[in-house]
Fold:
Amino acid sequence: MTDTDVLTRPAVLILLGPPGAGKGTQARKLETHYGFVQLSTGDLLRAAVAAGTAAGLAAKAVMEAGGLVSDEIVIAILRDRLAEPDCAKGVILDGFPRTSVQAEALDALLAETGQRINAAISLEVDDAAMVARVAGRYTCAGCGEGYHDDFKKPRVSGTCDVCGKSEMSRRPDDTAETVASRLEAYHAQTAPLISYYAQKNVLQRLDAMGDINEIGTEMRRLVDGATA
Ligand code: ADP
Ligand code: ADP
Ligand code: ZN
Structure:
């Protein structure tokens, strides 16, 4: 590989954290600031469910129950998306990997294209905050901007600040019962990835209990350091 390849190699950022940690919120801010693309496996799976593809049909019940969709399905979806041309500048992986099998598959995929992980940022929140965040979450159906009943209200109630549309949606899996299963899946299968990335020297821990914009500033500081 030449020096030029290294300089133009797309940035790869991973956002780790339990449901409600703020991964999607911060990924959108990074997308706007750096021109990287947010790849949310949750969004890709919800699109597959809505389109009624074979992967979507297999994933639907698991997602509704708050479990993890099979590694095989998620890895295939992510691999296809990563190959699209808009990923050339950099990607923010939001909600992937979530198991050690996925983490190893990602390493193999990146090795094929001579890429590496710049940073795996672990957004750390306590369980009570995460339940409150998920319970009050809703999203603009027009542009996907995320809002919260108490913590991030649009300037005009019911109207999206970003696109001006007034159709908002809530996820069927953002219920108290499902959140308990999702949190359990996080602690059992995803939290171990924190030490996986620490061993690779790419881990950045970030206290995600504070204000959305202050966390955004801290994220940019970490990303500037990891992509310099
Ligand atoms: P994740 O993608 O990790 O599941 P989201 O980014 O969707 O999390 O955030 C979950 C909910 O919490 C959303 O309603 C969002 O507006 C809100 N939220 C995100 N970050 C914060 C924060 N730092 N403080 C308070 N609420 C937040
Ligand atoms: P959150 O940010 O609130 O954790 P996501 O939108 O990332 O939610 O994911 C919603 C659901 O989609 C998960 O509960 C799980 O069923 C499925 N899912 C998303 N990403 C993955 C993944 N990498 N591996 C397995 N299942 C996934
Ligand atoms: Zn909108």
Notes: Residues 1-6 have pLDDT under 50 and may be disordered. Residues 154 and 201 are 39 Å apart (CA to CA).
